[in-house]
Specification:
The protein contains 12 helices and 13 strands. It has 364 residues and is α/β, with parallel strands linked by helices. It has 2 domains: 187 residues, Rossmann fold (3-Layer(aba) Sandwich), CATH 3.40.50; 149 residues, Rossmann fold (3-Layer(aba) Sandwich). The strands form 2 sheets. It has a 7-stranded parallel sheet with strand order 3-2-1-4-5-6-7, with helices on both faces. A 6-stranded parallel sheet has the order 10-9-8-11-12-13, sandwiched between helices. α7 links the parallel β11 and β12. α1 packs across α11. One of its GO terms (molecular function) is glycosyltransferase activity. Keywords: Transferase. This is Putative glycosyltransferase. InterPro entries: Glyco_trans_1, Glyco_trans_4-like_N.
């Protein structure tokens, strides 16, 4: 198939540091190329891919100090997609909702994965106005706040099987917190759980400008109070395998409707169990008693730390291999692309009109 992947411009694909959506776009794009599809990636110019790259901006917007407003750049992105839209059998958007009014003429070949939270008050009115767009959720729980829309499926994220090697042997005896410092991620819970458990806690997380006050007011004093807590800072992909792989467990003490939680399957890939609060997608990702423990309180989390020896790290990795590889994710999306109402007809007709042949490649 000829497939367009349309990425956000905030981060490169893949991102240098934090950036869950762009990371998934990268894993999906590279796996689709590996499977033999012709993929075009619309993204920032500092992206790295084996697909054809359409560099909409010179660099990722978050890293460009000259950028004040991202909207003009996303308008440029949408115009670039519109100009080439008839080349593709399927167009896969990862930019939330900004494109929807502009793709009505080729809506039958479009699908949008919603990567963020959907419980925001302004979203229902928008999606009621555009009910015909094919949407993908990244967990079933993510769908709950939405009005009736055209759900094409739920497709869980996946990682390349060889990206994060499993560490089956003994851990280094610390608990890990990885991701972003924010109130909904509840690093304060992680600090208290570690303190009560008597284990060191290592926090590898970015601090966005919007969360700087929260860090200074709520979290930094806790880090200073407890000698077992060490703030590592933001880490890159190469550092992640060692950081997660050497941990006894990943703490995922969230307090919000997490749409997916990529860090959970990153830990599982490293054969590191996850102790997660029952919020959002957690019950869909963690197999309680196999890949980790699902808890409802800090007391239960402390008790779960004491039971980590009951978990077989090889089985944690096996749970990842069974459900959360990029190969599985890409296969799910290819099936969805084929099922789009315009995927096999309109694009094929346009190619015939240009004399490019009429047969579509069908994989899997």
């Amino acid at each position: 198939m000829k497939i367009a992947q349309i990425a956000p411009l905030a981060e490169s694909v893949p991102p240098r540091l934090y950036g869950g959506t762009e990371r998934i776009v990268s894993y999906l794009t590279e796996e689709l190329v590996r499977q033999g599809h012709e993929v075009t990636l619309f993204a920032s110019g500092d992206s790295v891919t084996r697909a054809e790259l359409v560099p909409v901006t010179d660099m990722a917007l978050r890293l460009n100090p000259k950028v004040r407003d991202p909207i003009p750049y996303h308008m440029i992105l949408l115009d670039a997609v519109r100009r080439r839209a008839d080349e593709f059998d399927a167009l896969h958007f990862h930019i939330d909702l900004i494109h929807m009014p502009l793709v009505q003429d080729f809506i039958g070949r479009c699908v949008t994965t919603l990567h963020g939270r959907l419980d925001l008050p302004d979203l229902p009115a928008f999606y009621r106005a555009f009910p015909d767009h094919s949407l993908v959720s990244i967990s079933d729980h993510q769908r709950l706040p939405m009005p009736p829309v055209n759900w094409a499926g739920t497709i869980h994220h996946g990682l390349p099987a060889d990206l994060l090697p499993p560490r089956i042997g003994p851990s280094d005896g610390y608990l890990a917190f990885l991701g972003r410092i924010s109130p909904e991620k509840r690093p304060d819970r992680a600090i208290r759980i570690a303190a009560r458990s008597g284990l060191p806690l290592r926090i590898a997380a970015k601090i966005d400008a919007v969360d700087r006050a929260y860090w200074e007011r709520e979290i930094a004093p806790l880090v200073e109070r407890y000698p077992n807590v060490h703030y590592v800072g933001e880490i890159n992909e190469a550092q992640k395998a060692e950081f997660l792989g050497r941990a006894s467990a990943l703490l995922f003490p969230i307090d919000w409707p997490e749409p997916f939680g990529l860090v959970m399957i990153e830990a599982m890939a490293c054969a590191t169990p996850v102790i997660a609060f029952r919020c959002g997608s957690v019950p869909e990702v963690i197999d309680h008693g196999r890949s980790g423990y699902i808890v409802e309180s800090e007391d239960e989390a402390v008790a779960a730390v004491g039971r980590l020896r009951e978990l077989d790290r090889a089985k944690v990795r096996a749970a990842f291999d069974a459900r959360f590889t990029a190969e599985r994710m890409a296969a799910d999306y290819v099936q969805l692309y084929h099922d789009l109402p315009g995927a096999r007809t309109q694009a094929a007709m346009l190619r015939r009109l240009r004399g490019e042949g009429s047969e579509l490649q069908v994989v899997g």
